[in-house]
Specification:
Length: about 525
């Protein structure tokens, strides 16, 4: 495939908008079958000086081609693109793999060959963890998902991942009918809920049985070596101290779970709601404080200077689930004090999740004027994102400032915002822009890099992911979303190799480039939400 011709390496649904992009050359283009039959001709237009990539980018629109098949884009004088499909089910396998990634991140159980294939390994991290500052106290710590390319388990980003997956199920239940081939498959419950429950059950163990607060994270004191398999990581486990942000996001995700699991498992839903109530009591009796790593713990901190958004989200979810007005009073008081928050869906600013919860609340006591204000703010931000995409060479919403650590998460979070806006307003432009984010992940980007392991003509092969490095299997664990281009150059090999490159090209498919090529559960989760719309 020619490096100047950019296409989604998976393909397009028949009725969707279909763009290819060509750098540094305008003129004509054509779409042909693999046997050479030309089925579409068009002109490359919409020339854009694309600042993130440093390129002059031309766009080809072949949306009128709707026939199922496998095709290539050809440009006279350049050559042809990677092949791609047009099919109603073009994202089906991607959607399944993005979900099953969470199974491969499971901690505390054997990943058996029947379900994990060549990426099987033995159970890991089964020991009790010591409570930091209380050397005589230990608690069960097994279960949950490894957060990223390391083996830490963290409540705050875990809550974001839970929220994205449960929202995807609430918005698109029909997208989750195909089994994932995990141990729980066939139990009568959609596998996305089976998988999320594995994380929720671990998160319940993170609640201090003494006071109801929630420990911030469970890790070893330092990260293990890069080739260490999870079952070989036998350093002592430690519960870092209870934090306000962990407790707030715990309340929110448990309240969500109580609502979503009620129709399929009443007892588990009741357990989640009881845990949320205990944590809410702790939250309301403690000041907002920022978490810092203890001096002898050097794993990911997930510190957060702003904490009120956790209370905002927690109060909205508790109100939506219970309909009890005291939660709404907390929510409305925060709005009065802080003003309308942005539609943020990151782990550090979770206000957008609170807004979604309140907008979807059907309780009689809900304040309709507040809902209207929040809806208007959400739609205004969505319009801004859509407008931003129109001036980008690749028609995506990322600005130069967005090419940071985890830029693919930023992109998918913004696509989530647009799809939620579409639910509020039915503007098809929002869907078109969200689809372009999915195309970007699948290779329609300046580097022609598919940012999901196991997919595309130029697949991701060397993620910063310890099991994929240590297992001796050539192919990495499939379905993992890479962090993507990061202009910050925050690891040694990125600094050595990428200096001077434009932001959208600051990426290395190298196991040592943790700042561009690590994976994380909360990068996969918004990608699942986005893909769910197109199933």
């Amino acid at each position: 495939m020619h490096e100047w011709i950019h296409i989604d390496q998976l393909g397009y649904r028949p009725g969707d908008r279909k763009y290819c992009f060509v750098t540094n050359q305008g003129g004509s283009f054509e779409v042909a079958t693999l046997t050479g039959q030309v089925v579409f001709t068009g002109e490359l237009d919409h020339a854009t000086n694309d600042t993130p990539s440093g390129e002059l980018v031309f766009r080809g629109d072949f949306s009128a081609l709707r026939e199922d098949g496998t095709y290539v884009v050809r440009v006279p004088g350049l050559g042809q693109s990677a092949s791609f499909s047009i099919s109603r089910s073009v994202f089906h396998d991607l959607h399944l793999a993005l979900q099953k990634c969470f199974y491969y991140q499971r901690c505390g159980m054997d990943l058996e060959p029947e379900f994990a294939g060549p990426w099987a390994h033995k159970a890991c991290h089964l020991n009790h963890g010591l409570v930091h500052g209380e050397p005589a106290r230990s608690l069960p710590s097994h279960g949950g998902w490894h957060d990223a390319g390391d083996y830490g388990k963290y409540v705050v980003p875990g809550a974001k991942a839970i929220a994205d997956l449960l929202l995807a199920y609430e918005f698109y239940p029909n997208a989750f009918q195909t089994p994932l081939h995990i141990p729980e498959s066939g139990n009568g419950i959609p596998d996305v809920l089976n998988e999320v429950r594995y994380e929720l059950e671990w998160m319940l163990r993170m609640q201090d049985p003494v006071n109801g607060g929630v420990f911030h994270k469970l890790t070893t004191h330092r990260f293990p070596g890069l080739a260490v398999m999870p079952e070989e990581d036998d350093a002592p486990l430690v519960f870092s101290p209870i934090s306000y942000t962990a407790t707030g996001t715990f309340v929110a995700s448990m309240a969500m779970a109580a609502r979503v699991y009620e129709p399929v498992d009443h007892d588990f839903a009741a357990t989640c709601l009881a845990a949320a109530n205990r944590a809410w009591t702790w939250l309301c009796s403690h000041p907002e404080t920022q978490f810092h790593n203890p001096p002898d713990v050097f794993t990911g901190e997930y510190g957060d200077r702003q904490c009120w958004d956790e209370l905002y989200w927690a109060s909205a979810e508790m109100f939506r689930t219970t309909g009890d007005n005291p939660y709404q009073e907390v929510f409305l008081n925060l709005l009065a004090e802080k003003g309308l928050p942005p539609a943020s869906l990151g782990w550090a600013n979770v206000a957008g999740y609170g807004t979604i919860a309140y907008l979807m609340t059907t309780a009689e006591a809900v304040d309709r004027n507040t809902q209207a204000r929040l809806r208007a703010r959400w739609l205004s931000e969505a319009e801004d994102l859509a407008e931003r995409s129109r001036t980008d060479g690749y028609q995506v919403t990322l600005t130069v400032e967005d090419y940071i650590w985890g830029s693919t998460m930023v992109l998918c979070n913004q696509a989530m915002q647009l799809l939620i806006a579409y639910r509020l307003d039915s503007n098809p432009a929002f869907v078109d822009v969200a689809a372009q984010s999915l195309h970007y992940l699948a290779g329609c980007n300046p580097l022609n890099q598919c940012y999901v392991t196991g997919f595309g003509t130029k697949p991701l092969m060397h993620p910063h992911h310890r099991p994929s490095i240590g297992d001796g299997v050539e192919q990495p664990v499939p379905g993992m979303v890479s962090g993507g281009p990061n202009k910050g150059l925050q690891d040694a090999i990125a600094k050595a190799e990428l200096g001077g490159r434009p932001p959208a090209k600051c990426f290395l498919d190298h196991q040592d480039s943790y700042s561009t090529n690590e994976i994380a559960i909360y990068w996969n989760s918004p990608a699942v939400f986005v893909a769910s719309h197109f199933i």
